[in-house]
Amino acid sequence: TLPSELTVKDGAAQKLSGVIIALSHCFHALAGFSTDLLKSVVTVILELPWGAGKGFATHSTYKTLIDAGVYSMDDISEAIDSTMTCVQGFDGDCIELLDPLFSLASLCRLSS
Prior knowledge:
The protein has about 110 residues and is mainly α.
């Protein structure tokens, strides 16, 4: 099982962000291989903290899972609500808010 909240040290955050973004480009191919494996990878990505590339991978994640018939528009609505709650309750540095805002914009684009 995963810890309730994964943490990333500052030095590793940029590297992890690059890895997550690169991995998100492979989601379509991964869905063709195994949707169960894709769902597992997505579960890990969704548990990452904001600022670790999670926002950049969100669009690819949900688009691929919807195209594969694994997720529905209800799942996008839940993700939008969850991300909106994060944005509204944010009390840190505004630069750290860019990742969830990018994710929110991507999810809203998919839902329309």
